[in-house]
């Protein structure tokens, strides 16, 4: 079995003013551990190709120790599917705090897929998940349209990618990208709900092209669905080359947030009324997806930490 564990202390600089671990840092720790496992499987360079889901079920709090465990579920010619779990340790007890599923691809020095020397036989379910991913990716490949025009509530988050955001081969590190995504989309959620929010999950994302150091990263985030206390903020991520003006779609995803009051308890928000056909069709898709997401979340929460 290919698996690895890492441990993290939750220190004050990792937490928000409720004393719980920031969603973006939580997600980046899950990605770090999956990457460490992928290093030992790939024996060389690799890239994060996709995330199926990242659920944050329970907050890790200041002073907690988080054990992140990554396990390879299946591999194909160059790709590996890895499951990660975040286990919150309190004394001798462990509670499942987070779970995620992602796929990595072993690459050569030019960033092109290369064959792996190990094989982790996929079962039928893993084959189905792989087919779904590739189908999903096909749907967004070639799309360069912007998300914000036609949406009622959104914001654009723009920044330059510096060497401190990379992992040594000129590419933005996926863990940093998730920290930026969480910040950008939480800003939209907080402005919309006029209060504080907790990050509940990140939905599927396929990484079409790498973001290079020196690129300008633009995250367009818009409210795509509102429930009673929760909201989905969708995102389109673009890498912009300012010399040529080229804008490439990096990924399309959605984060779910829960609006909270001063005690950290769920708090009602106003309903989003779609203002265009475009916005209505996005919302309808989110409603369908959401049912599936909630069902999966309930099943995954039953998993143990071992
Ligand atoms: C300095 C020296 C150190 C040396 C020591 C080494 C240590 C190493 C350190 C690195 C430590 C940090 C590593 C961090 C990892 C990031 O942070 S990566 C940053 C975020 N990710 C990216 O930037 C990736 C951007 N995307 C891409 O570059 C390309 O899309 C990819 C992922 C390379 C795939 O290329 P492609 O041409 O689209 O893929 P394609 O040829 O169609 O398919 C190739 C394989 O990819 C799979 N695939 C393609 N798309 C997907 C998808 N969406 N989902 C799942 N699988 C997919 C296919 O199924 C196929 O698999 P196999 O059948 O071969 O097994």
Automatic annotation (TrEMBL):
One of its GO terms (cellular component) is cytoplasm. The keyword Cytoplasm does not apply. Keywords: Hydrolase. Residues 1-110, 151-263 form the HotDog ACOT-type domain. GO terms for molecular function: long-chain fatty acyl-CoA hydrolase activity. The keyword Hydrolase applies. Pfam families: 4HBT. GO terms for biological process: acyl-CoA metabolic process. PANTHER family: ACYL COENZYME A THIOESTER HYDROLASE. This is Thioesterase superfamily protein.
